[in-house]
Amino acid sequence: MPQRTLPPTADAEETPRLHWAALVFTIATMLSAAVVGLTASDHFTRLTMAASVMGCIALWQTLRDPVVMVGLTVVILGAVLGWGLNFYDRIWWYDDFAHFTFSLVSTMGIARLLLHKYRAESAALLLVALWLSWLGIGSLWEIGEWTSDQLQATHHSRGYADTMADMMLNSAGSAIGIWIYWIWLRTPADRATVLPPADSAR
Predict the structure, then answer these.
(1) Of 44 and 61, which is predicted with more confidence?
(2) Is residue 42 within 8 Å of residue 152, measured between CB atoms?
(3) Domain range for residue 139?
(4) 119, 5 in Cβ contact below 8 A?
(5) Short name of one Pfam family for this protein (predicted)?
(6) pLDDT of residue 194
(7) In-domain check, residue 54
(8) Quick one: pLDDT band at residue 11, thresholds 50, 70, 90?
(9) In three state form, how does the secondary structure of 86-119 look?
(10) How far apart are CA 71 and CA 19, in angstroms?
(11) pLDDT tens digits, 77-133
């Protein structure tokens, strides 16, 4: 089973900085999210946009990881386009694209945030746990959409078939995101999460 472990400490680490283009992109997206949230007609959209802005600020203050920040900003931009410019209704494939892409990007961000804090006997065990975690988050999102539809007569959830399609796209996007991260983006701290055979046998 995955075990919690303390992240490795460094004596002196240079504080990461966002490239100026990424910084402008992030600020513009945050302002757009704030506008969409303030002008939204339902609580689900307001809550989502507010949580997005506060999450970005909190992550940058505590973590300062450019990969996580840019990934989160891309996800927020997708929501801004979907709700603010009504892409969900104007473009028939946008909702499917959003679920797949958001799952791919978000899972890589979560991997960067949390993967190095746990250890397991095999990488597969950690990565499956990460995948299942994202499926849980996706399920909570679908519950939030359904609840908004019931309480405020919104149309975030388009029925059973749409919900199942969203869940399958979440699963596929997350799996591909995990594969991309582990093959190309993992850090030395991530590699240390897999216990050597001698340690795992104890």
Answers:
(1) 44
(2) yes
(3) 20-197
(4) yes
(5) DUF2238
(6) 86
(7) yes
(8) very low
(9) CHHHHCCCHHHHHHHHHHHHHHHHHHHHHHHHEE
(10) 14
(11) 999 999 999 999 999 999 999 999 999 999 999 999 899 899 888 999 999 999 999
What would the DSSP string read from start to end of 118-145? EEBSSHHHHHHHHHHHHHHHHHHHHHHH
Q: Is residue 3, in this structure, part of any structural domain at all?
A: no
Q: Is 123 exposed, middle or buried (0-12, 13-18, 19+ CB in 10 A)?
A: middle
Q: Report yes or no on whether pTM surpasses 0.70.
A: yes
Q: Are 150 and 83 in contact (CB under 8 A)?
A: no
Bridge partners for 118 per DSSP: 4
Q: Is 1 contained in some domain?
A: no
At position 72, the amino acid (one-letter code) is: L
Tokens representing 102? 């958001």
The answer to the question of residue 8 being in a domain is no
Indicate the number of domains in the chain.
Answer: 1
Q: What is the pLDDT of residue 9?
A: 47
